Amino acid sequence: MSMSKIKKNVVINSSEISTMNPSTRIAVILPLREHFRSADAGAVALTVKDFYFASTYCHETIVFGGFAEHFPEVNYHHVKPSIWRIFGQNIAYAKQCVQDLVKHQVQMVEVHNRVQLALRIKKALPHLKVAIYLHNDPHTMAGLRTAQERAEVLEQLDLVYCVSQYVQKRLLEDINTSYAQKSYLIYNAISQKQSIQIQDRQQWITYAGRFVAQKGVLELAQALAQVLPQYPEWKAVFLGAKGFGHEAGQSKYEQAVYAELAHVASQIEFRGHVKHDEVMDVYSQTAIAVTPSIDAEAFGRTTLEAMDSGCAVISSTIGGLAEVAGDAAILVNPVNPTSISDAISSLINDRDLRLRCAKRCQDYVRSHFSLIKQTENLDASRKALLVDLN
Fold first, then answer.
1. Which of 151, 228, 256, 358 could cross-link with 312 by S-S, CB 3.0 to 4.6 Å?
2. Is the peptide bond between 22 and the residue preceding it cis, with omega within 30 degrees of 0?
3. How far is CA 350 from CA 156, 177, 291, 345, 388, in A?
4. What CA–CA distance (Å, rounded) separates 28 from 65?
5. Where are the domains of the chain?
6. Cα 1 to Cα 6: distance, rounded to the nearest angstrom
7. Over 70: is that where the pLDDT of 18 sits?
8. Distance (Å, whole) CA 219 – CA 281
9. According to DSSP H, which parts of 7-88 are helical?
């Protein structure tokens, strides 16, 4: 495409265009409000970081984000729109991304979880290969809720990455099967440590995640209120709050959770939101981890992390959690205080069962969600799109 055509969409000084690293071929774009640092990185940021360092395209990739602070040693570009008040944050971010993409002369763009951003980039720069990376149920995302919207996105963009078969199935629901070739399954994955022992664990029952109704935290609290008085040597550890940037205990839902556990307060530890490194440290010591979601999860990264860390995991089977837990975890369906308390009690009472479950969980995720394997899949799809440009 000629530069004159590009200038119909963005205003670029020609002197700026040749100043960037010519080897940069792929831009990975984070959602505007996604922090890309250890203090408060979420699942999207952690996934981007892990794949960045594992990819053969590492030195040809740049990560775009809306905050200046970022993980060290990542080729990172802070997108700084100067026109917030005129267009609003999301449109301004998209317009600035387009301008900065032209400056960096990339060939391929991967937009994480923001459909309208991906479409704006493709419309402005149709010569680029543009993919959208879905971390949520498409039916809950702006621009993908209807079958017509999903078909239009698949028609206009070059590829759609899905983090689970569940997400892929929901993406393709009620649309022409010909679009399936544009969807690509890339599981979230983590870099496994060489060895994490599963014996001699702390007698902890750990939950890590947001304190919202969809996560089943209240049902877990009700289960623990039944179980913990029978086992005074055990305690429960809660990591998280309503969301990033929220002080723990401020929502009515959190207060309801606290109230359920008031009579076993001596066996409860609420740590609030903590850094990802602390989550992983707690998991490495935890005997039992629980992910009791009552609403469909697109994937379930905390479940993956707990399993890889050698915890005996209790999980619901809703949405993508069924794929992460497989037949290795202790599965609860339906999710209610009784089913959760029964599962916890069975693991507390039977040490051999607990150790077998922990070993199954660790082996399962290391064979199915290897970062090396998933990165190979991601790089293969990138290669196909980049070759198509030549």
1. 358
2. no
3. 54, 48, 20, 8, 56
4. 9
5. 23-189+371-389, 202-368
6. 8
7. no
8. 25
9. 43-54, 84-87
pLDDT computed for residue 84 by the predictor: 67
User: Which residue is listed with tokens 């017509």?
Assistant: 148
Angle at 295 between CA 293 and CA 299, to 5 degrees: 70
Both structure tokens of 40: 């408060």
For 25, half-sphere exposure in the C-beta direction (CA atoms, 13 angstrom radius) is: 14
Per the CATH hierarchy, to which homologous superfamily does domain 23-189+371-389 belong? Glycogen Phosphorylase B; (3.40.50.2000)
Chain-wide mean pLDDT for the chain? 91
Question: Could you tell me if 187 and 164 are in contact, meaning their C-beta atoms sit under 8 angstroms apart?
Answer: yes
Cα–Cα dist 25/60, whole Å: 5
Strand partners, 239: 208, 272
Q: pLDDT band at 194, cuts 50/70/90?
A: low
Nearest to 237 by CA among 326, 306, 187, 189: 306
Distance between CA atoms of 183 and 168, rounded to whole angstroms? 7
Q: Where are the beta strands (DSSP E) in the chain?
A: 26-29, 61-65, 76-78, 108-112, 129-134, 159-162, 183-185, 202-208, 235-239, 268-272, 286-291, 312-316, 330-332
Mean pLDDT to the nearest integer, 94-115: 96
Pick the CATH number of 202-368 from 3.40.50.2000, 3.30.1490.20, 3.90.180.10, 1.20.1290.10: 3.40.50.2000
CA 194-271-236 angle, to 5 degrees, is: 75
Nearest 10 degrees: Cα torsion 297, 363, 235, 315 = 30
Q: What string of DSSP letters covers 98-119?
A: HHHHHHHT-SEEEEES-HHHHH
In sequence order, what are the residues at sequence separation of 6 or more whose Cβ sits closer than 8 angstroms to the Cβ of residue 350? none
Helix, strand, or coil (residue 38): coil
Tell me, yes or no, if the two domains 23-189+371-389 and 202-368 fold the same way: yes
Task: Give me 46's structure tokens.
Answer: 């952690």
Q: What are 309's two structure tokens?
A: 């860390």
